[in-house]
Amino acid sequence: MNDQSPGEETCGVDELIPDVDEPLAVGQVAALTGLSADTLRWYERVGLLEGVARDPSGRRQYTQKDLRRLALLMRLRATSMPVSEMLRYAELAKVGAPTELQRRQLLEAHRDRVLNHIADLHRDLDVINRKIAGYRGSQAPAVSA
After folding, report:
1. Exposed e or buried b for every residue in 107-116, given b needs 16+ CB within 10 A?
2. Helix and strand element counts for the chain (H, E)
3. Distance in angstroms (rounded) separating the CA atoms of residues 89 and 83
4. Which one Pfam family would you cite for this protein (predicted)?
5. 61: part of which helix (H) or strand (E)?
């Protein structure tokens, strides 16, 4: 994903990934992110994470830029964006500035789904809270008159 839109240098995802001064190997990135090395390699293989540099021995060397892109991918997956949409976003990002509107629309549609899911969870939580309150009320000490 070569996402160079205005304001997207950090996109609010950097809190997932600390700053690094030197490139990291796949195992280091796996330990840092909690993703498996296989997942990191798969992200690259399918085109979600492109341009990861290699050292002279051919081992992946993840830069801060790679880590920022990875952090965005992690947020998108954590909010249940389908891989097919992540791939579409990555394809659009490769094209660059001419696709900013399409990328924004894709993210807005995803945001709307996330907000709907949050609203559903709030309704579910309300039901659970009412049930808990009902149990608390039924366990109140008896008052004698």
Report:
1. beebeeeeee
2. 5, 2
3. 10
4. MerR_1
5. strand 60-61
Hey, what are 143's tokens?
Answer: 């008052």
Domains of the chain in sequence order: 12-79 (1.10.1660.10), 82-138 (no CATH)
| Ranges in the chain, pLDDT < 50 | 4, 6-9
The CA-based dihedral angle spanning residues 19, 23, 25, 28, taken in that order and rounded to the nearest 10 degrees = -20
Alpha carbon 52 to chain centroid distance? 19
Neighbouring C-beta atoms of residue 13, cutoff 10 Å: 18
Structure tokens at 20: 């690094």
Q: Which two tokens stand for residue 145?
A: 């008159």
Residue at 59: amino acid letter? R
| Short-list 53, 58, 62, 57, CA closest to 33 | 62
Percent of the chain whose predicted confidence (pLDDT) is above 90: 79
